[in-house]
Design brief:
two-stranded antiparallel ribbon, eight-stranded antiparallel beta sheet, mainly beta, 13% helix
């Protein structure tokens, strides 16, 4: 499993890119130095967790955009764009969460605007990877999940968590 994750992460690093919807950048892949996968971790943003049912998003109202994507590992897949959150849904469950809003935090309390040192205090040291003027720090966990931070200077400007593709 460990070598399998390294292969996937290498492919993601080589093929990474950024796309913008509603001026909110969304990572297509993880591009950072990744340490050995840590133990399984509950990941999410705000009150939403990876694996939650899509119906939990009802409290956010109607999305600004619904973008259909090829299903990949899922039977159905869509990206729902809200004012402060982008949510990818695979087979009716939350599989990726992305935000640039400081009001949403990880379950460990890290949020947009926090420093690189805060990330390291909570999740451990990790070598940042540069993408032009932006630094990226990411972590992978057993169970196939990841946590991704994009930084400008030493401050978080975007956070994303999700499941790595099978």
């Amino acid at each position: 499993m460990k070598n399998y994750l390294k292969i996937i992460l290498t492919l993601l690093i080589l093929g990474s890119g950024i796309t913008v919807f509603n001026n909110l950048p969304i990572p297509f892949g993880i591009s950072a130095s990744v340490a050995d996968p840590s133990s399984e971790k509950e990941l999410g943003l705000g009150e939403f967790r990876l694996g939650d049912l899509e119906s939990k998003l009802d409290i956010l109202g109607t999305p600004l955009q619904i973008l259909k994507h090829p299903p990949g590992n899922y039977n159905t897949y869509a990206r729902l764009v809200y004012p402060n959150l982008i949510v990818d849904i695979g087979d009716g469950k939350i599989v990726v969460l992305t935000t640039t809003d400081r009001s949403l935090s990880t379950p460990d309390g890290v949020r947009v605007g926090d420093s690189l040192n805060r990330i390291f205090e909570v999740y451990g040291q990790q070598e940042p990877h540069s993408q032009e003027d932006i630094q990226v720090v990411s972590y992978s966990f057993s169970g196939g999940s990841y946590l991704y931070f994009k930084l400008e200077g030493d401050r978080i400007i975007e956070m994303s968590c999700g499941f790595l593709p099978d």
